[in-house]
């Protein structure tokens, strides 16, 4: 893969990061609303912590795929002469980059889809309605998710600052 593909690849990765940051901000306000709704329920709080952790893990896998693809795409070709033979390592092509990065990104996307905010809301709604948690979810709820302190969000008004007068 030539270096002319590097700039679009970097821009795509940065655009993906900006999109994830926007989704993360929306996700945090969504989770704050859920935390406020289930403030007295430690199991619901632990489920929210579990989903937050797994969503972050999915995003990490996607970023890792993008970074590994960028690293492989920018690899230079090398020629090594060793005694009587020549070893020529060509730079990888787009197919090689795709074959390496796609399983990593697919795993991350799978985690993001499985632990989506919509799925979280459905699980919490079912739990609030009195249904039992799925066995797979109960297995994943470890003690560390219950130990995260529950902090009630309280908005703080900032005082207005007047601009200094110019003479």
Largest sheet: 2 strands, antiparallel
| Spatial arrangement of strands, main beta sheet | 1-2
Strand content: 5-15%
Span between termini: 61 Å
Helix/strand-derived category reads mainly alpha
Q: How many helical elements?
A: 6
Helix percent band: 55-70%
Order of helices and strands: HHEEHHHH
Stretches where pLDDT is under 50 for at least 5 consecutive residues are: none
Mean pLDDT: 80
Task: Give Rg in angstroms.
Answer: 24 Å
Shape: flat
Quickly count the domains.
Answer: 1
Q: Could you give the count of β-strands? A: 2
Topology diagram in text:
Layout: H1 6-37, H2 42-73, E1 78-82, E2 85-89, H3 94-114, H4 117-128, H5 135-140, H6 143-146
Antiparallel strand pairs: 1-2
Describe what this molecule looks like in 3D.
The longest helix has 32 residues. This protein has one domain. The protein has a two-stranded antiparallel ribbon with strand order 1-2. The radius of gyration is 24 Å and the shape is flat. The mean pLDDT is 80. The chain has six helices and two strands. With 167 residues, it is mainly α. The chain is 64% helix and 6% strand.
Short summary:
With 167 residues, the protein is mostly helical.
Give a quick set of tags describing it:
167 residues; mainly alpha; two-stranded antiparallel sheet; 2 strands; flat
